[in-house]
Design the sequence.
């Protein structure tokens, strides 16, 4: 297993890269979740707003990451800031889309009975709609997380010292390329899989009773 | 008391409710019944302002409902819908506690109320309090829906086709349970249905609406069946209104033939209605049936007795 040999030989480089990678992912997922949730709620409330929000968040995802990071570095300098902003923008679509869908799929009878019992719009949202939409919203956050873990590697191109650096420097070498590339890829994959499993666990735990109970 | 004063609801050019005026007394059960498109559900939802009237006034105890904060108004009125709409992520107990919590009741008071209500609907708290709605039968869900509507002990209960999606046997049980419940809690109930039999069975008074929200007749079930006021009412009542009306006359109120010796084989309980009596008479080989009360024969019923009773109560 020369890959793991390579990782352990270069631990003083790769170790800090893993930490940076995790930091960036955590920060981006947290922020994109908050913004995506807000946009998703707005989109669920207003159809015209939904069209605009979905168009913008979808379009962002079609911009190649290399180009987006490069573009953002014009205003935000090099290294972490443009990459963090870019990754937040990428994460918006899955979170926003799923938040909207989650709220929209709540049984109208449940919402009507909540209103009929005297819940104000904020209470309907916080006590009924969002709790019921949680499994679907978390599905969106999972997608965003896996995507951010992977795309973060491209940040190395604008100077972020994350696992992308190991891959980038390996590509520029003439010998031992495979081991060096895998030394970057394997930790990235491990982070992605681990984060997904943790979120899937949370999703399952919070899905209690959320299976749609048809009235009849 | 709930008063509709020339209430109109228009959607664009179509009229859903047309100058509806009626008065519902405290503690009575009024059934709004009619074909689809007659504005019965719209009328119901205007009481708790889920729908706002275009014209006219609805007042509760002489206070215009528009002068209330809309959420305060709704918290003071129980609301039950056909699809029940229980919160699927909350236990039965949490569902029933919804309005008490919105009103800021203490934990102890809320919990005591939840247990009292589960007791009232005959679902033991020890077994049902912690269940999720998905773990209940359709009938149980609807009972929990009624308990939830009674959460903060409102004076008024609005019920929108609550038993419409339930199979006939469970529906009859729920209807009987509602009658029993109402004899205990004495709420002002406004109940929407398209089923005239349900209306006649449950209502103290029945408001029959025709398409476009026109009030055709508003009276007691007995009077409605005996004296329909228009061709529309007659048509809506359908076949055999007099036979239906028999179900409203308790045998105990009927003058029976004296019991002398030769007792017929078939019997009917004194607690039943004339409809049960008619059934027993039809089953009997000699067209007569014993009326029994706790094993004692208290009289004889036959076709003449039923006919006389039916004529008299008209």
Sequence:
């Amino acid at each position: 297993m020369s890959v793991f040999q390579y990782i352990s030989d270069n631990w003083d480089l790769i170790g800090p890269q893993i930490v940076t990678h995790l930091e960036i992912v955590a920060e981006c997922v947290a922020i994109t979740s908050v913004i995506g949730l807000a946009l998703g709620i707005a989109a669920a409330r207003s159809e015209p707003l939904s069209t605009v929000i979905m168009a913008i968040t979808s379009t962002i995802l079609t911009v190649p990451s290399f180009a987006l990071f490069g573009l953002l570095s014009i205003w935000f300098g090099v290294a972490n800031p443009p990459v963090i902003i870019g990754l937040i923008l990428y994460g918006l679509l899955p979170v926003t889309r799923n938040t909207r869908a989650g709220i929209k799929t709540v049984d109208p009878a449940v919402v009507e009975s909540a209103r009929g019992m005297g819940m104000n719009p904020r209470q309907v949202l916080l006590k009924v709609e969002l709790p019921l939409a949680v499994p679907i919203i978390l599905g969106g956050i999972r997608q965003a997380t896996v995507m951010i873990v992977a795309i973060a590697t491209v940040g190395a191109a604008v100077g972020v010292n994350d696992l992308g650096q190991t891959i980038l420097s390996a590509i520029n070498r003439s010998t031992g390329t495979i081991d060096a590339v895998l030394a970057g890829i394997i930790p990235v994959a491990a982070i992605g899989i681990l984060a997904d499993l943790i979120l899937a666990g949370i999703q399952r735990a919070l899905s209690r009773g959320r299976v749609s109970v048809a009235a009849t | 008391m709930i008063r509709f004063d020339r209430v109109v609801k228009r959607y664009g050019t179509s009229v859903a409710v047309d100058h509806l005026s009626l008065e519902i007394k405290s503690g009575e059960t009024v059934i709004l019944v009619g074909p689809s498109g007659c504005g019965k559900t719209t009328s119901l939802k205007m009481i708790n302002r889920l729908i706002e009237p275009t014209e006219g006034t609805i007042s509760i105890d002489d206070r215009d409902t528009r002068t209330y904060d809309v959420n305060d108004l709704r918290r003071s009125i129980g609301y039950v819908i056909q699809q029940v709409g229980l919160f699927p992520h909350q236990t039965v107990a949490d569902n029933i506690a919804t309005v008490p919590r919105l009103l800021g009741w203490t934990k102890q008071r809320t919990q005591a109320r939840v247990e009292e209500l589960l007791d009232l609907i005959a679902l033991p708290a020890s077994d049902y309090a912690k269940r999720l709605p998905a773990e209940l039968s359709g009938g149980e869900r609807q009972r929990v829906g009624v308990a939830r509507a009674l959460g903060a002990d409102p004076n008024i209960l609005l019920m929108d086709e609550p038993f419409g999606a339930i199979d006939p046997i469970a529906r009859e049980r729920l209807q009987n349970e509602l009658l029993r419940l109402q004899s205990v809690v004495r709420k002002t109930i406004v109940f929407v249905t398209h089923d005239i039999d349900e209306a006649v069975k449950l209502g103290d008074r029945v408001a029959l609406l025709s398409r476009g929200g026109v009030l055709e007749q508003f009276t007691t079930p007995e009077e409605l069946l005996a004296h329909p006021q228009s061709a529309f009412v007659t048509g809506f009542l359908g076949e055999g209104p007099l036979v239906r009306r028999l179900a409203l006359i308790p045998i105990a109120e009927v003058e029976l033939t004296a019991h002398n010796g030769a007792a017929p084989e078939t019997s009917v309980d004194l607690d039943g209605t004339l409809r049960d009596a008619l059934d027993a008479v039809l089953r009997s080989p000699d067209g007569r049936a014993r009326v029994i009360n706790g094993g004692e024969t208290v009289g004889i019923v036959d076709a003449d007795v039923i006919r006389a009773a039916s004529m008299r109560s008209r």
